[in-house]
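Example noted here:
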Amino acid sequence: MIKLYIPLFALCCGLQLQAQTVKAPWTLEQCINHALEHNIELKQKVQEEERRKVDLHTNKHSWLPDMNASVGQNFDFGRSPSKSGVIVDQNSANSSAGVQISMPIFDGLKTPNSIAASKLDLKAATASLEKVKEDLAINITSYYIQVLYNKELLKIADLQYSLSNKQIKQTEALVDAGKVPLAQLYDIKAQLAKHEVSVAEAQNSLSLSLLDLAQSLELENESETIDVVVPATHDNIEKYISSIIPADQIFANAITFKPQVKEQEFLLESQKKRLKIAQAGFYPKLDLGASYSNGYYHYSGNEDASTNIAFSDQLKNNARKTIGFTLSIPIFNRFQVRNSVKHARINIQSQQLMVDNSKKILYKEIQQAYYNATASLKKYDASDKSVLASKEAFSYAEERYAAGKSSAFDFSQAQTQYMQSLSEQTQAKFDYIFRTKILDFYNGTPITL
């Protein structure tokens, strides 16, 4: 009994291990979410956003006082200043400590404009991050649909191989009945070998597309185990036709929220703030300063050494407290401020061109997406009609061949035409789906299948 249970136990363990290695297929939403969490370029953009947050934090606290402390110890030998300030022959030691505080009161509005510019830079960095997320979602969708397309092509290749295999059996029966020559059987077997190669090529294309998807998800080590959920693709025209909206209507909506446009607009406003920062150099600046210092003096080497005052008494007598204001009035600075203002104005003009160009590129992309979607719809509709016609032609050829009334060449031609129309239909179908998803993307609709 024990010997009987051992192989059963091993079989159960093997099945359990196999079940653990088989992973559930991924949906498009899962692929996009995983990519958003693990994509390296996206992580770099997150770091850029964090740097902008640090810059904003720095500028926000520019109004705070600047406080520094200092401690010093000096030794003089031979000649050193006395209490009265006269240089005499004596040795002395001087210990000092102090605290200095400086605080800007008015800086020509440079600080508030720097804070505003940093806020706009942060918004621009956030918009740039959103742009990378959107581009990543589109790329993942492209890879995902390519996998679905290659799965369909593999099915078509398998169907073609199955039909050729069926044709061999029919031809063998016709050869035995003396209705067709033996040479036709050899020709069909040669076709079967070609179709077997086509199956292998289709399988390889599917594996490569899965590899591309896995790499885009940062899953290089799991490319052989990943698979995707195949959504229902019937009634595609009716399902996605609502996504085909005129380009001008999509653009009017997209320009209000698309991150590539918002990023440039934020940067334009930031450049306007930087112009005011540069203009602050024309204004006077007022700073508040305060300090406290103290010291201990010790003399040796002559009669003054006997008059050294105690440490605690010196701390009471030597304390110095200072508070004051400094007004800095710019008069001539070698045209640095004037040229900085000119540079700022040029930067505003350049950034305005960037805003206009981003809108122009967006409109061009939406126009192209719209025309591609409408063209793919027409192609998909035509491919459906082609499949119906070629299928009828193939059925008719199949009946004639089974009755021995047509040649193997005619039957093979009808079969090839039918398979070709199926391939074209598959390509048109997934191209149509992808093009409508692009329009959804520009219109702000989440990408789903």
